[in-house]
Amino acid sequence: MACQKLGSRADVFRKQGQQWYCTSGLPSDITVAVGEQSFHLHKFPLLSKSGLLERHIREKIDKGEDSSVIDLSDIPGGAKAFELAAKFCYGVKFEMTASNVVHLRCAADYLEMTEEMSEGNLIAQTENFLTQTVLRSWKDSVKALQTCDDVLDIAERLQIVKRCVDSIATRSCSDPDLFGWPVAQYGGPMQSPGGSLLWNGISTGARPRNSSPDWWYDDVSCLSLPLYKKLISAMEYRGISQEIIVGSLNHYAKRRLPGLNRRKSISDVSNCLSMTSLTSIPSEDDQKYLLEEIDRLLPFQRGVTSCKLLFGLLRTAIFLKASPSCLSNLERRIGMQLDKASLEDLLIPNISDSVETLYDVDCVQRIVDHFLAMDQETGGASPGLGEDGQILASPSLMPITMVAKLIDGYLAEVAPDENLKLPKFRSLAAAIPDYARPIDDGLYRAIDIYLKTRRSCAG
Q1: Is 70 left (phi over 0), alpha (psi -120 to 50) or beta?
Q2: I want to staple 60 with a disulfide (CB 3.0 to 4.6 A). Which of 65, 290, 325, 331 is the partner?
Q3: Can you give the residue ranges of the BTB domain (predicted)?
């Protein structure tokens, strides 16, 4: 992580409990309170750099107040930011990094540490470091953006959030892999016959990076949801493909939603979620909010989001009791590409208060209904008939034929459930048009299992 050294004096600040002292040899004549911490300092170094402190000190002098205490508890970045700002006022050595520059920049604005007060003041120093160093580095930009959460309002007013987001989005978008562009064709680094990177035709000796479109997923997954959403919006604006965006959303969700995309029983999911307090995972309410936001960010486009992710989100949404609109959206998304699902995907545990069946047959029925409605809206092919009256095979029938096979397999899987009532079994079986089943063997097998189970129970 890049850093810039400021100041030249040895550190004269010492902390005892919640009290800070400047051991410069002169007695303190002013105390700055920041929350529970107090800084016992000297007026001149502070008023020579800070317009805010100069005003407070002058007011006390003009009013003849004996109190030398100034309360700055609302300073952005808190006591740590003020400590660094105070060290700057005293010319004490410290390092400015991507981890502290945002808080320091916001604190400098709050303290009015402008060029009018002193040349090369803290606002100018932090702005220069942000612009010339942090925003020119991917990792430093991500780190700086991550620290904006605690000072979000002022960081947005100072355009720090926007500049960090723009820097990250620009750098991610400059990776040709995110667009599927060949590197050399669009001005990317060329390689010598020996494999090293070339710069203006001269070998740099560096080896090319084996990049993949997901190289940035883990870095940005550390961001809070509000900041992550801003970044995703900026990337979409710059034209990154929907598949890459969905990949990032998937990675982000996995880090915050326990059990996502894992095949778990209800008790397993419950146990996983109950451990959140031990692993610093968000509360169930926070997870529900996150999941609903992820749903809003996902594109409504067939084939862009994998069935594995959608079913994982749906299972989690059901358990977390997400909003009806979120559940409906996920079912619709799955319905749009049900032909790409697997039987295992459809085995969604039933966790309703009045549990009737082991698996959520009603949910699968709604998903099938969405698929059939979409198939009809998009002009799903009607089967043609040959001279002998036989249905003619057609590539356009492939999706609904695959769904028919999938549902027949599902019916066979849920048929042994004694609580599955005949109307539900029949409704799901009848939802698939006859022409979608070139062979009825799968359906007959499911019916046979259903009937045998009930005969054995009756016996």
Answers
A1: beta
A2: 65
A3: 28-98
Give the pair of three-digit tokens for residue 422.
């005949």
The one-letter code for the residue type at 113 is M
Reference 308, options 344, 277, 274, 272; nearest CA is 344
Check residue 383 and give its pLDDT. Answer: 56
Q: Which two tokens stand for residue 264?
A: 């778990």
Q: How far apart are CA 183 and CA 155, in angstroms?
A: 36
Quick one: DSSP state of residue 85?
A: H
Most distant CA pair in the chain: distance in Å? 109
Q: Which residues contact 257 (CB under 8 A, 6 or more apart)?
A: 287, 290, 291, 313, 316
Contacts of 166 (CB under 8 A, 6+ apart): 234
| Selection from 66, 81, 79 nearest residue 29 by Cα | 66
- Report the predicted TM-score, pTM, of the whole model to 2 decimal places: 0.82
**Residue 118 token pair:** 């002193």
* Contact (CB, 8 A) for 183 and 196: no
Q: Give the total residue count for the chain.
A: 459
Closest CA to 85 of 35, 140, 48: 48
Listed in sequence order, the DSSP H helices in 174-241 are 217-220, 225-237
Q: Are 246 and 304 in contact (CB under 8 A)?
A: yes
Helix and strand numbers (H, E) in the chain are: 21, 12
Contact by Cβ (8 Å): 404, 437? yes
| pLDDT single digits (tens) 59-89 | 888 877 766 899 999 999 999 999 999 999 9
Q: How far apart are the first and last CA of the chain?
A: 74
Between 264 and 346, the more confident residue is 346
The predicted structure's pLDDT at residue 395: 52
Cβ-proximal residues to 154 (8 Å cutoff; 6+ apart), any chain = 76, 106, 109, 110
Nearest to 139 by CA among 210, 216, 240: 216
Long-range contacts (CB closer than 8 Å, 24 or more residues apart) made by 122-127: 122/49, 122/85, 122/88, 125/4, 125/6, 125/88, 125/96, 126/96, 126/101
Query: What span, in angstroms and rounded, lies between the C-alpha atoms of 350 and 356?
Result: 8
